[in-house]
Design goal:
heterotrimer; A alpha/beta; B mainly alpha; C mainly alpha; A: alpha/beta; Rossmann fold; 6-stranded mixed sheet; 21 helices; 22 strands; B: mainly alpha
């Protein structure tokens, strides 16, 4: 039927370089909540060959982890597979009896988890957990110790007894993930499923891990399924890619074809949201939210958010349409096969007005107790301009934000705000100064008081700083909510009724309500999906321009910087290693650290 | 709690000299540090407790002798003076405290005001009896609680889980004397007549000489502590079984029995140890009521009598012993919990 | 902290927060509607009514010697006679109100002192925290019962002393729980927002932290009430309660023990009443705790929430 055709077409029209036979064949996978609940994953079909990496891409809530687990015949509590097949070398894993399935897991098909610090048992030594995989699949290997040393070397771990005796918490994040990789490869499986394995790792470690995955897969002819939200990573690593939305694969094909020229409106929207380090472009996100299971409607789940929607899109689920080696679930795909539209470049920044620097830091050092975190920081923020502070975790960027906003009470060095000295600690600053510097936190889930309504949350700083009548306050709150594209209907809602992107917009509205002169944004999009991130970044850029704000944008995402900031400062281990205009930093970095960062950032494939 | 101090190589066997050298470049020892610090705090606590006890019993309006002799004091100044001398009340305050405190260490604890016996001789057999009671109840209770908790966790949401949860909730609500009375009613006086209602040991004998007298008191204490241990074990097991690392083990193809025994249990033990320790502490208090109900010649009963009769030296000594037991158990619990949690035992 | 991934892989939203937006009354109401909550509340209320209204309904005076010592139940004396030949029913009806009152007072003292200490220790940190927590450790070195006995042995079995002693020994345990809850909340970003406005610690505590404490506070209050009843009844049982001939459930159980073979009701009824009361309060407290934490959600719900991409679960 259609599914078999889809699989056949994908595999026959596979990208150049595909080697070997089809190892994994997924047909019509359908998973639902409970025995009779709504579908979580519907009609998923794809195939993967030996030595090839298949990228499964999607945002949170798309169902990709559910699919990943189902490839090992596993579902989380409350979910069940209602139909479909997962054929590994011809054997349907979904219909195997429990003992046979157990024999397959770890030996013929293995899993690399997203969070190795949680997936490694804290009470067992690393060696025990590695050896366990071999013990449980007795007979898989003749000399277990030799195999373990071998696989550890392949994963770039010290193959020493001392390393094996360590407990997981004694390893760094990167080492933990390499242990997980070693565990997955130790029985030389046919299939490896990797679930966002580089989340939480810094860019260089990520690069290393990806290369390890690629080389191991090629060396042992392993079929790999790489699940991720990070399109750039998948673009570099995978030969084939499937894009998931609301439980379905909406586009599937060769990565080299899909990324430069996406056909499905969702894929196009996604790619338009991914920042590019090479060009200063406006990002565009996708309004709305991915519908959760049970709210996906009768037709195409993307219809409510789609710019090309027709009447019949809402009534029938589009079947895959086959176009030049790809399958796309869109009724309108044949109409346009243009390459990915370019994005409008950012307007040139207005010349900075004359006047004192919005913010200036000189020789600033701070720490917690005896531990120094920042040393000798120099930073200048010209008025009405946006400065990006870029650093990996541990670089001290959050401490810097705390110093600037006044959460850090002790430190040395000189801080100046609008020409006047800025005191350490919020309690030593006058109210006027506190009002003019506002802070937006990283985590939208903990920065809003769950017991207050949105209206109360946004109105509270107004009550504290300004002397306004109730009506004036109300008017301001409504106005600032509109500025962040939230309607007045949000006033009486509570935070847990909002999505992550909406919450972050409330946090921004709260900061803007008192009309600050300097806005400090601390990794405000790190907890959000890429399509939502694009919306927030564009919103911030518009706000900065319209309100003539100075802004400090803290992030670890180097390409993102290009789409919002004029100058950038690079932090490493509490020191500034480089500072200057954004184009200069990204194209002609002076510091080797910056150069390495830029080289290690994965890049999205562009049209040839 | 355990400060971030690193650990030198503890088990050099099987590791090369390079590795041992590498590991022992750090210094410090979280275990010793913890014990040392807690012991120091414990000693300080005991000192404060001793002062409070002393102040409470000696320094009061109308001195203790007055209180003891009651109405007779007014009419009998000779007896009053004699009692005061016996209680050292005619000396300065600090003097009295020092005498008492040093007496604790030299074993000269004074004499009971009730029967004139040396306090140590009066209290020590009671201490042993109570110790037997608490140890038996503690060990049996822990074993039963841990087993029930693990079983309930493995059969989560089943009928066994439900029944044990509800029963546990009800039992933890009951005061121990009610449990004791309930047992007496059922097994001793009203329904069945299998067991004695009182545990009167002949003087000079110890608890283990007449085990059937131990059954009801131990049973009471076991019933009282089992629900706490069971609930903690169940919760810890469930958390372990639903954790990411157990899911990972399933995805590696590890069989169920190994998951439960080697993956879940070790992680469930540490929080349960805390609760077990807490329950031993609780037993120290619960023993008072239970011994009273069953007339069991232990330190709890001794304390109740001493309080009724204002037998001050006995009260002082018993309270100090109990406080010392508390401090010791706290330290022991923390140490065992630390040993069971590699993450705290071996910092990076 | 390492970078977090987008969407639901974000820092987990604490599950309890979803409920906390209700006012504390709403939480109580929700708890009262669960099967456990309803049972617990019902049991407790029944006993409270008996204790509160009992004195009005007693057929005889609780002190009058009207029947045989340990007389069997009969029409005129439905629960028979006690050790001195007083009517057990009348004594039971009169024997509860004081216990309740004392327990409530002790709970109030414990919660009040403990909360003040716990919140101060958590928010002020530094030396204040150290001093308070060391004191807590020292006071916790006594078993509650023993401490009460100690005080009673000196000053005498005064009722106000019992209430005070029990209340004081609750305070450290409450302080510990509230301190850790406060520490938890103080770390949240929305409290830092208030700090950024230059608010003084006292005001931040009052406006941002205290409202979120209502749930752990309610649970602690329920637990402390249960323990107060247990300890005060226990002290009465040991003979440290109201002086005889006052009827008190705890004392009655002790007095009439010797007559168990003859008239067990003199022991069983007061014991059952105490038991039902404590089971009721503890069960209701447990129900409140569950409502606040959302324990034991149905698996389908849990999976759906996770796949919705809402933080707190492992979403796809």
């Amino acid at each position: 039927m259609n599914r078999d055709r889809a699989a056949a077409i994908v595999t026959s029209g596979a990208a150049a370089g595909a080697t070997g036979d089809v190892r994994l064949d997924v047909r019509g996978l359908r998973i639902r909540a409970g025995e009779t609940g709504p579908d979580v994953v519907s009609d998923v079909c794809f195939a993967v060959r030996a030595g090839e990496v298949f990228g499964l891409v999607g945002e949170s809530g798309s169902g990709k982890t559910t699919v990943a687990l189902a490839l090992l015949g596993h579902t989380r509590r409350g979910l069940s597979v209602s139909s479909g097949e997962v054929l590994l070398d011809g054997v349907d894993l979904l219909r195997l009896p429990a003992d046979d399935l157990r024999a397959v897991r770890g030996a013929r098909a293995s899993y690399v988890p997203q969070d190795p610090s949680a997936a490694l048992n804290p009470a067992l030594r690393v060696g025990t957990q590695l050896r366990e995989t071999l013990r449980v699949h007795a007979g898989a290997v003749d000399d277990p110790d030799r195999r373990i040393s071998e696989v550890m070397r392949e994963a770039y771990l010290d193959a020493t007894p001392a390393m094996l005796r360590r407990y997981p918490h004694q390893l760094s994040g990167g080492q933990q993930q390499r242990v997980a990789l070693a565990m997955a490869f130790v029985c030389r499986p046919s299939l490896i499923v990797l679930d966002e394995p580089t989340t939480g790792l810094d860019v260089s470690t990520q690069r290393h891990v990806l290369e390890t995955v690629r080389s191991l897969c090629r060396a042992y002819g392993v079929a790999a399924v790489y699940v991720s939200h990070d399109l750039a990573v998948v673009s570099e690593l995978a030969a084939q890619v499937g894009v998931m939305y609301a439980g379905r694969i909406v586009e599937i094909g060769a990565a080299a074809a899909v990324f430069p020229a996406p056909l499905h409106p969702y894929t196009r929207g996604l790619l338009a949201a991914v920042p590019a380090a090479e060009r200063a472009e406006q990002l565009s996100g996708i309004d709305g939210q991915q519908p959760p299971p049970g709210h996906r409607g009768a037709g195409c789940s993307f219809a409510p958010r789609c710019g090309l929607v027709l009447g019949k899109c809402r009534t029938q689920v589009p079947e895959p349409v086959f176009v030049t080696g790809r399958a796309v679930r869109c009724l309108r795909v044949t109409e346009s096969q243009a390459a990915r539209p370019g994005r409008p470049p950012l307007p040139a920044p207005a010349a900075a007005p004359a006047g004192p620097l919005a913010l200036s830091l000189r020789a600033v050092s701070a720490g917690y107790g005896p531990v120094p975190v920042l040393a000798g920081i120099e930073l200048t923020v010209p008025p009405q301009s946006c400065v990006a502070v870029v650093g990996e975790s541990g670089s001290g960027k959050t401490t810097l934000a705390r110093c600037i906003t006044g959460l850090q009470h002790k430190g040395t060095g000189e801080m100046t705000f609008q020409g006047a000295p800025l005191a350490w600690g919020a309690r030593r600053r006058p109210q006027q100064v506190l009002r003019r510097i506002q802070y937006v936190f990283q985590n939208p889930y903990t920065s809003l008081n769950p017991r207050k309504t949105i209206g109360q949350i946004v109105s509270q700083p107004l009550e504290h700083f300004l002397d306004l009548s109730r009506d004036e306050r109300y008017a301001r709150v409504v106005r600032v909510l509109n500025d962040v594209s939230l309607g007045s209907g949000f006033l009486s809602r509570y935070p847990d009724q909002l999505s992550g992107g909406e919450r972050q917009r409330v946090a921004i509205a709260r900061a803007l309500a008192v009309e600050p002169d300097l806005l400090v944004c601390d990794e405000v999009t790190s907890a959000l999906d890429v399509s939502v991130q694009a919306i927030i970044v564009e919103l911030l850029r518009a706000i900065q321009r319209d309100r003539s704000l100075a802004m400090i944008f803290i992030t670890h995402n180097l390409p993102l910087v290009r789409s919002i900031a004029q100058t950038a400062v690079v932090l490493q281990d509490g020191r500034v290693v480089e500072a200057g205009p954004v184009e200069q930093i990204l194209e002609r970095p002076a510091s080797p650290y910056t150069a390495r960062l830029i080289a290690d950032v994965p890049r999205l494939a562009t049209a040839h | 709690m355990a400060e971030a101090q690193a650990l030198p190589q503890r088990e050099p066997t099987g590791t090369g000299p390079a590795a041992a050298r590498q590991a022992s470049t750090r210094e410090g020892h979280p275990l010793l540090y913890l014990v040392g610090r807690r012991a120091a705090i414990g000693v300080f606590t005991l000192l404060v407790v001793s002062m409070v006890v002393f102040a409470a019993t000696e320094v009061l309006p109308g001195n203790a002798a007055n209180a003891i002799l009651g109405r007779n004091a007014a009419g009998n100044p000779v007896a009053l003076h004699r009692l005061e001398a016996q209680l050292h009340l005619n000396r300065g305050l600090l003097d009295q405290y020092w005498t008492w405190l040093s007496g604790l260490f030299t074993g000269n604890l004074g004499h009971s005001l009730v029967n004139g016996e040396a306090v140590w001789g009066y209290v020590s057999p009671r201490l042993i009896n109570s110790g037997v009671l608490m140890l038996a109840a503690g060990v049996i209770g822990t074993l039963v609680g841990v087993s029930l908790g693990a079983a309930a966790a493995l059969r989560k949401d089943g009928w066994f889980d439900h029944v044990t949860s509800v029963t546990a909730l009800a039992v933890t609500s009951l005061p121990e004397f009610i449990v004791a009375i309930g047992l007496i009613i059922v097994f001793s006086t009203v329904l069945l007549h299998w067991l004695p209602a009182v545990s009167l040991l002949p003087p000079g004998t110890y608890a283990w000489d007449a085990p059937q007298l131990l059954i009801l008191p131990v049973a009471t204490l076991v019933i009282v502590i089992v629900p706490y241990i069971m609930r903690m074990m169940r919760a810890a097991m469930i958390e372990a079984l639903e954790s990411d690392y157990v899911e990972m083990a399933r995805l590696k193809g590890v069989p169920v029995w190994r998951i439960v025994g080697m993956h879940a249990l070790p992680n469930a033990i540490a929080p349960t140890i805390q609760v077990v320790g807490l329950n031993f502490l609780y037993l120290a208090g619960g023993v008072v009521v239970v011994e009273y109900v069953f007339n069991f010649p232990g330190v709890g009963q001794g304390l109740v009598y001493a309080v009724s009769n204002r037998d001050i030296p006995v009260i002082q000594f018993v309270v100090i012993v109990l406080a010392a037991f508390y401090v010791f158990m706290n330290i022991l619990t923390d140490v065992v919990a630390l040993l069971a949690t590699p993450r705290r035992r071996l910092p990076r | 902290m390492a970078h977090t991934a987008p969407g639901a892989n974000a820092p987990a939203k604490p599950k309890a927060e979803r409920i906390r937006r209700h006012q504390w009354l709403a939480v109580l109401g929700t708890a009262a509607r669960t099967p456990r909550g309803a049972t617990g509340l019902g049991l407790a209320l029944v006993v409270v009514l008996i204790a509160a209204l009992g004195p009005l309904a007693a057929p005889h005076s609780p002190d009058a010697l009207v029947t045989l010592t340990f007389g069997k139940p009969s029409g005129q004396f439905p629960l028979g006679g006690d050790e001195l030949g007083r009517d057990v029913l009348s004594r039971v009806l009169n024997g509860g109100w004081l216990l309740l009152l004392m327990a409530l007072a002790a709970t109030a003292i414990g919660i009040g002192a403990g909360t003040a200490a716990g919140v101060s220790a958590a928010y002020l940190r530094g030396r204040t925290d150290g001093v308070i927590m060391r004191t807590v450790d020292v006071v916790l070195a006594f078993p509650q019962l023993v401490f009460a006995l100690l005080l009673l042995s000196i000053i005498g079995p005064k009722l106000w002393l019992i209430v005070l002693a029990v209340g004081i020994t609750h305070a450290p345990a409450v302080a510990r729980v509230i301190r850790s809850a406060t520490l938890d909340i103080s770390e949240r970003d929305y409290v830092k927002v208030a700090e950024l406005q230059g608010m003084r610690p006292a005001k931040v505590m009052a406006k941002e932290i205290m409202p979120s404490l209502s749930t752990p506070l309610m649970v602690e209050a329920g637990l402390r009430l249960t323990y107060s009843i247990i300890i005060i009844a226990g002290l009465a049982f040991l003979g440290f309660g109201q002086a005889p001939p006052a009827p008190s459930w705890g004392t009655m159980i002790n007095e009439n023990r010797v007559g168990l073979p003859l008239n067990p009701w003199a022991v069983i009824v007061p014991a059952a009443l105490i038991a039902l009361l404590t089971i009721g309060t503890n069960t209701f407290t447990d129900a409140i705790g569950r409502v606040a934490i959302g324990v034991d959600r149905k698996p389908e719900e849990a999976a759906l929430v996770d796949d919705l991409g809402l933080a707190g679960g492992r979403a796809s």
